[in-house]
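Renewal narrative, Specific Aim 1. Our central claim is that a sequence can be written position by position from structural information alone. The example that follows is taken directly from our test logs and has not been curated for this report. It begins with the C-alpha cells describing the chain, in the order in which they were read.
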C-alpha cells in the first residue's frame, strides 16, 4: 500500500477503501494513519457505530470521507435494506412510517456534511437504491463500486448516480482493471481496461445530454 501510494502523482486524488468504523479514540488513530501517514485524500467509512466514529475523519476539513450506504455485495441487504421506523414515528412525505436503513444512513450523512467533505458509497449492483440515495443526497458525490467483475449496471450507475449537473458519480472498477492481465503486459492491459470504461462512461453521459468541453 505504501509503495502504491508513493507512486501516485500528486495531482491524482486517492480514495483509501479502508471501510473504517470504530470508537472515537481508535477512529482518531485511523484518521491519522489514513491522512497523515499514507496521505490519502479520502477514505471509506462504516457509520454503523454512529457520528462520533465519523467525526475524527471529518475534522480533516481538506480531506473527504465516503460513508457506506447500500454496498455492492449480495449480503448488503441483510441489514442495509431492513425497514426502520422514521425517527418521528410518523409518515414522511410519502406517508411511509418505515424506510430502509440505508436511507436513514444517507439522511444522517447529509446532516453531518456541514464541512462539505462527505460522500456516499452505493454499489452499481443496486441501481434502484442508488436512485433513492441520489434523491436524498442531491449534490453529494457518490462512489459507485461494483462495475466489472461484480456485474454492476454501468448505464444505471451513470443515470442515477450523477447530480443535476452531470457530475458527482465516481465509478469504480477494481479487479476488472487490476487483473486485466496476469502476464508481462499487465500495465498495458490495465490502461486499456481503464480507457475502455472511461469511454463507456462518457457515452452514457452524452446520452443524457452531458459532454465534456473540447
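The sequence written for that structure reads:
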Amino acid at each position: 500500500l505504501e509503495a502504491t501510494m508513493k507512486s501516485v502523482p500528486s495531482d491524482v486524488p486517492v480514495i483509501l477503501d479502508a471501510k473504517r468504523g470504530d470508537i472515537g479514540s481508535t477512529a482518531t488513530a485511523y484518521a491519522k494513519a489514513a491522512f497523515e501517514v499514507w496521505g490519502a485524500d479520502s477514505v471509506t467509512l462504516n457509520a454503523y457505530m454512529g457520528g462520533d466514529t465519523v467525526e475524527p475523519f471529518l475534522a480533516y476539513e481538506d480531506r473527504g470521507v465516503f460513508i457506506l450506504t447500500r454496498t455492492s455485495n449480495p449480503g448488503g441487504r441483510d441489514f442495509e435494506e431492513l425497514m426502520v421506523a422514521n425517527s418521528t414515528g410518523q409518515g414522511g412525505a410519502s406517508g411511509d412510517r418505515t424506510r430502509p436503513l440505508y436511507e436513514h444512513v444517507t439522511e444522517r450523512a447529509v446532516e453531518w456534511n456541514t464541512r462539505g467533505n462527505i460522500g456516499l458509497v452505493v454499489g452499481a449492483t443496486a441501481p434502484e437504491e442508488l436512485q433513492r440515495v441520489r434523491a436524498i443526497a442531491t449534490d453529494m458525490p457518490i462512489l459507485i463500486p461494483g462495475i466489472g467483475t461484480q456485474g454492476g449496471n454501468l448505464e444505471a450507475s451513470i443515470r442515477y448516480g450523477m447530480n443535476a449537473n452531470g457530475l458527482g458519480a465516481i465509478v469504480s472498477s477494481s479487479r476488472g482493471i487490476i487483473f486485466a492481465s496476469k502476464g508481462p503486459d499487465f500495465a498495458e492491459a490495465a490502461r486499456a481496461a481503464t480507457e475502455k470504461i472511461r469511454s463507456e462512461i462518457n457515452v452514457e453521459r452524452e446520452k443524457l445530454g452531458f459532454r465534456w468541453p473540447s
